[in-house]
C-alpha cells in the first residue's frame, strides 16, 4: 500500500518547460521543412512569452504571501523561479544555435538571405534611408536621464532599442513599430537572390538621424514581459464583464516578469536599465540581438518553394455531411462525428446556418469560449435573431487574451436581441456545446453538438479536436439542463450520462478509476487509457498511482505537462505516458475504461486538472454509437502507437523519442489518422 510520504509529483511549471522543449525539438529536426522549423521557433517563443506573463508572474505573486504560510504550504516560489531561469537560459542557447547555425544557412542555400544592418551595402543603406523616412512618424524616440528615469514605461512584449551615448548621463529608448509596419522588409533588388532585413535594423541604420545631437556608443534590443492576469474582486456586485473590460489596462500596465536584453549589453548599461525600470536581478534575462521570434509566423517566402513547407492536406469530405441538404434528418438517424483539422469546420457552420434558416427551429443555445473576430458562426447566430428565433449565448468573458473580443461580441449579440450571459464569478465556462431546439410532429426535439475545441474556424485548422452531432434524447435532455445552469435556472444539473464539472466529473472519474482498481484486485480485466492536454490534479494522480500498484495497466497521452511521475517502481511502474508534438496541436480529450470487458469511452472539454474538475463548467460525454466508438478508438490507438513524433514522459523527463523496432512500420499518427479518416469517408 502506498504511504503518503511515498507519493511523488512534479512541479507543473518546471514540467511545462519539458513541453516547450518538445516544440524546440521540432525546430531542430532537419526532416521538418525549413519554414515549418521557423514556425516551431515562433511557437516556442510565443509559448515562453505567455509562460512568463502567466505562470512565472503567478510564482512571483506567491512571494507576497507570508513566509509562515508559504512554509506551511511547502511553497518555494523563489527557488522554483531560479530553476526555471536556468532551464530557460539553456533552452534559449540551443534556440539561438538552431536559428543561426542551421536555419539561416539553409535559407541561404535556398536563395533567401536575412541581411543585418552591419552588413548593408551602399544600395541597401540607401534603401534603408528611404524606407525609414516613410515610417519615421511611427518611430517615437525618448531621452531618459539616469537620475529621473522612473517614469519610463515599456509596453508589454513590444520591441525597443536602448541607445547609449558617449560621456552622457542619459540614454535613448526607441520603439520598433511592428504593429504599424512589417517586421520583415524585402529589399527591392534585381538579383536572383532574395534579400530580407529586419525593421529593427532599418531603424538602427538611421539612429544617427534620430539622435543627431548625440554620439552613439551602443544600440541594444530589449523587450519587457508583464503580468497577464487580471486581479479583479470576484464578487457578485456589478457586471463581471464590465469589471473585466475596465481591468484590461492592468494587463498592459502589469508587474514586469522578464526583461529580455541583448547579451552584448555592457553590465553598467544593464544595471542602469534595471534601476530605471525598477527591476530585480532575477527579472533580467540575456538573449540574442533580436527578440519576438513569434513574428517569424509571418516571415515571407519570396521563392514560393513548396519544399520549404508542409505538403498540403486537402480537407476530408464527410461521407454524410458533405452532401446532406438536411442535417437534422441525418442526425436523427444516427450520431455523426467530425475531426479537425482533418475535416473542414464548415460542417459546424452549416449546421448553424441550417438552424438559423429552418422555420421549425425555435431556439439556439451555444457556449462560446473564444469568439472568432468575424465568422460564419457569429453571422449565423445574428441571422437566427433576425428571423425571430430565440438565441442564448453564453460568453466566457474571462478567456485569457480574448476578454475584449468576447465582450465586444457579447454586446453585439445583445444589441440584436440575444440573451447573453457572461462569466460567473470564480468559475469559467470552458465547455464547447451547442443545442438546437426544433418543433417536429407537434413535439419538441433537441439536437446537440459536443466538442473538444472552440467554435473557431481559424483554430480548427491548427488544433486536433473531436466532436459529435447527436439527437440522443437523454444526452440532449441533460445538455439542456447544463444550459439551465448557465442561465441560472438550475443550481445542480441532474445527469446520468454526461459528466458535468464542477458537479459530477471528479466523482465519476474517481469512481471509474476505483472500479478498475477493484477489478484488478479481483483478477478481472482492467485498464485505463486516456488522452489529454495536461495532467495535474493531485487526487486523480494519487488514484492512478493506487491503480498502478493494484496492477491496472495505464496508458496515457499527455501533450503538455504532467505532474504524475511514471515508471517508478512501487508507485507508478504500470503507467506509461507519451506526448505527441507534430504538425498540428493535439487538443482532444478521450478517456477509455476497460470495465471488465464492458468498455466505456468518453470525450469532451476537460483535462485531469483541478481547474477543469472543480473551477470550470465542462462537459464530458459518453460515446454510445458503436461506429463512432470504434472510430475514436482507432484514432486513439494510432496515437498510442506513434513511433515517429511521440516522446516518452519518463521519470527524468528526458524527452526521448519512442524507438521504432526494425520490423515495425513507421507510424506518424497525425498522417495515419488523416489516411484512416480519408479511407472510411471515401
UniProtKB/TrEMBL annotation:
Belongs to the polyphosphate kinase 1 (PPK1) family. This is Polyphosphate kinase. The active site is at residue 430. Mg(2+) binds at residues 370, 400. Residues 425-459 form the PLD phosphodiesterase domain. Catalyzes the reversible transfer of the terminal phosphate of ATP to form a long-chain polyphosphate (polyP). Its cofactor is Mg(2+). One of its GO terms (molecular function) is polyphosphate kinase activity. ATP binds at residues 47, 463, 559, 587. The lineage of its organism: Bacteria, Pseudomonadati, Bacteroidota, Flavobacteriia, Flavobacteriales. Keywords: ATP-binding, Kinase, Magnesium, Metal-binding, Nucleotide-binding, Phosphoprotein, Transferase. It comes from the Bacteria. PROSITE patterns: PLD. Its EC number is 2.7.4.1. An intermediate of this reaction is the autophosphorylated ppk in which a phosphate is covalently linked to a histidine residue through a N-P bond. It catalyses: [phosphate](n) + ATP = [phosphate](n+1) + ADP. It comes from Salinimicrobium gaetbulicola.
Amino acid at each position: 500500500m502506498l504511504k503518503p510520504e511515498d507519493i511523488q509529483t512534479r512541479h507543473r511549471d518546471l514540467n511545462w518547460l519539458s513541453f516547450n522543449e518538445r516544440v524546440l525539438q521540432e525546430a531542430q529536426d532537419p526532416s521538418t521543412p525549413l519554414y515549418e522549423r521557423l514556425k516551431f521557433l515562433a511557437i516556442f517563443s510565443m509559448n515562453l512569452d505567455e509562460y512568463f506573463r502567466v505562470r512565472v508572474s503567478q510564482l512571483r505573486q506567491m512571494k507576497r504571501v507570508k513566509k509562515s504560510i508559504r512554509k506551511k504550504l511547502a511553497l518555494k516560489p523563489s527557488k522554483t523561479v531560479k530553476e526555471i531561469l536556468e532551464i530557460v537560459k539553456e533552452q534559449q542557447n540551443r534556440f539561438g544555435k538552431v536559428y543561426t547555425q542551421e536555419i539561416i544557412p539553409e535559407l541561404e542555400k535556398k536563395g533567401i538571405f536575412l541581411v543585418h544592418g552591419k552588413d548593408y551595402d551602399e544600395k541597401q543603406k540607401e534603401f534603408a534611408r528611404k524606407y525609414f523616412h516613410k515610417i519615421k512618424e511611427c518611430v517615437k524616440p525618448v531621452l531618459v536621464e539616469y537620475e529621473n528615469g522612473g517614469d519610463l514605461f515599456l509596453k508589454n512584449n513590444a520591441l525597443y532599442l536602448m541607445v547609449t551615448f558617449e560621456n552622457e548621463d542619459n540614454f535613448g529608448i526607441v520603439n520598433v513599430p511592428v504593429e504599424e509596419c512589417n517586421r520583415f522588409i524585402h529589399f527591392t533588388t534585381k538579383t536572383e537572390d532574395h534579400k530580407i532585413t529586419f525593421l529593427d535594423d532599418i531603424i538602427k541604420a538611421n539612429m544617427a538621424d534620430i539622435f543627431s545631437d548625440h554620439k552613439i556608443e551602443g544600440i541594444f534590443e530589449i523587450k519587457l514581459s508583464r503580468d497577464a492576469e487580471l486581479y479583479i474582486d470576484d464578487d457578485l456586485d456589478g457586471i463581471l464583464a464590465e469589471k473585466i473590460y475596465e481591468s484590461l489596462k492592468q494587463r498592459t500596465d502589469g508587474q514586469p516578469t522578464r526583461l529580455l536584453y541583448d547579451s552584448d549589453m555592457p553590465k553598467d548599461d544593464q544595471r542602469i536599465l534595471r534601476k530605471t525600470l525598477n527591476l530585480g536581478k532575477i527579472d533580467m534575462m540575456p538573449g540574442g540581438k533580436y527578440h519576438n521570434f513569434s513574428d517569424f509566423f509571418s516571415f515571407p517566402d519570396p521563392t514560393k518553394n513548396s519544399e520549404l513547407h508542409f505538403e498540403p492536406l486537402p480537407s476530408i469530405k464527410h461521407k454524410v455531411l458533405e452532401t446532406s441538404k438536411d442535417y437534422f434528418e441525418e442526425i436523427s438517424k444516427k450520431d455523426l462525428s467530425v475531426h479537425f483539422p482533418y475535416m473542414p469546420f464548415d460542417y459546424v457552420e452549416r449546421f448553424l446556418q441550417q438552424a438559423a434558416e429552418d422555420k421549425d427551429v425555435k431556439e439556439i443555445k451555444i457556449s462560446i469560449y473564444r469568439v472568432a473576430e468575424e465568422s460564419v458562426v457569429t453571422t449565423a447566430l445574428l441571422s437566427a435573431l433576425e428571423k425571430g428565433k430565440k438565441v442564448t449565448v453564453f460568453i466566457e468573458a474571462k478567456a485569457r487574451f480574448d476578454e475584449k473580443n468576447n465582450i465586444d461580441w457579447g454586446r453585439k449579440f445583445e444589441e440584436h436581441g440575444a440573451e447573453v450571459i457572461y462569466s460567473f464569478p470564480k468559475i469559467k465556462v470552458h465547455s464547447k456545446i451547442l443545442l438546437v431546439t426544433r418543433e417536429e410532429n407537434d413535439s419538441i426535439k433537441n439536437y446537440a453538438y459536443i466538442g473538444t475545441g472552440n467554435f473557431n474556424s481559424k483554430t480548427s485548422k491548427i488544433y486536433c479536436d473531436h466532436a459529435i452531432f447527436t439527437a440522443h434524447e437523454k444526452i440532449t435532455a441533460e445538455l439542456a439542463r447544463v444550459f439551465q445552469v448557465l442561465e441560472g435556472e438550475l443550481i445542480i444539473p441532474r445527469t446520468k450520462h454526461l459528466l458535468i464539472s464542477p458537479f459530477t466529473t471528479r466523482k465519476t472519474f474517481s469512481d471509474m478509476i476505483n472500479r478498475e482498481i477493484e477489478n484488478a484486485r479481483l483478477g478481472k480485466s482492467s485498464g485505463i487509457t486516456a488522452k489529454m492536454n495536461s495532467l495535474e490534479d493531485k487526487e486523480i494522480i494519487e488514484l492512478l498511482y493506487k491503480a498502478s500498484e493494484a496492477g491496472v495497466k495505464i496508458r496515457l497521452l499527455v501533450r503538455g505537462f504532467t505532474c504524475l511521475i511514471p515508471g517508478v517502481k512501487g508507485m507508478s511502474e504500470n503507467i506509461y505516458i507519451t506526448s505527441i508534438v507534430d504538425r498540428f496541436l493535439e487538443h482532444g480529450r478521450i478517456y477509455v475504461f476497460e470495465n471488465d470487458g464492458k468498455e466505456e469511452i468518453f470525450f469532451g472539454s476537460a483535462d485531469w486538472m483541478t481547474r477543469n474538475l472543480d473551477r470550470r463548467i465542462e462537459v464530458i460525454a459518453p460515446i454510445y454509437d458503436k461506429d463512432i466508438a470504434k472510430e475514436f478508438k482507432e484514432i486513439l490507438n494510432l496515437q498510442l502507437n506513434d513511433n515517429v513524433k511521440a516522446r516518452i514522459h519518463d521519470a527524468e523527463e528526458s524527452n526521448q523519442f519512442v524507438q521504432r523496432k526494425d520490423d515495425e512500420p513507421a507510424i506518424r499518427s497525425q498522417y495515419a489518422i488523416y489516411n484512416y479518416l480519408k479511407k472510411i469517408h471515401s
